């Protein structure tokens, strides 16, 4: 199967409407791919906190409409990164959108781990509560977003739910980009799964983005890595490698569940 990651330059001078139009054209140009992945919060910017409330959208809003049409025109599975979702009955969420090649919105994932500690996403957005996987003709996708990458418990849960390909859109800052590449490789080795990690570039909310989107195989080998500018990575993957790596090096069968608490010794 062929996967393409679109590492977008998020320029505050470009309107969300113009960025949607430009991004849809990029997706349509990838009709030879099976799966296309976009970054996190690309319509507004992952650190553009002041724009989130006014720019929030419903799941049938302008970004979903544009990405649905682009997926159908290209005939690809499209992980359209994430949007600021306005829930009519609740808070805003950081929500990923997955479209089928017919343009149907088949899965959404609300980001569970919100970044910012006592500011930004952590206080402005609600937290997701459900892990999400998606069956496709080329394997089961596991959906995670940016800061989720730091929490291996989520990825173990995705593994146990059958995940073979981890899809991780992000707005990861340049100042911690080494953590980004290290953790992407760690999750691939840990779960013996492909990792498709798609980051932003540019600067928004005053925070330079790290770029360096990457594709990692189940052995932790980096198959492709972008630089710091806007770029499209296209990589051919062997879906059978996941099962083969798990069979050749069956580390997952040695997991010990329910490890008891330490015993105090006087």
Automatic annotation (TrEMBL):
State whether keyword Hydrolase applies: yes
Q: Name one Pfam family in it.
A: CN_hydrolase
A molecular function (GO) held by this record is:
hydrolase activity
Query: Domain CN hydrolase, which positions?
Result: 1-239
Task: Write down the InterPro entries for this protein, in alphabetical order.
Answer: C-N_Hydrolase, C-N_Hydrolase_sf, UPF0012_CS
Mind telling me which CDD domains this protein's record contains? nitrilase_5
Q: What's in the keyword line of the UniProt record?
A: Hydrolase
The family note in this entry says: Belongs to the carbon-nitrogen hydrolase superfamily. NIT1/NIT2 family.
| Name of the protein in question | Carbon-nitrogen family hydrolase
**Organism ancestry:** Bacteria, Bacillati, Actinomycetota, Actinomycetes, Kitasatosporales
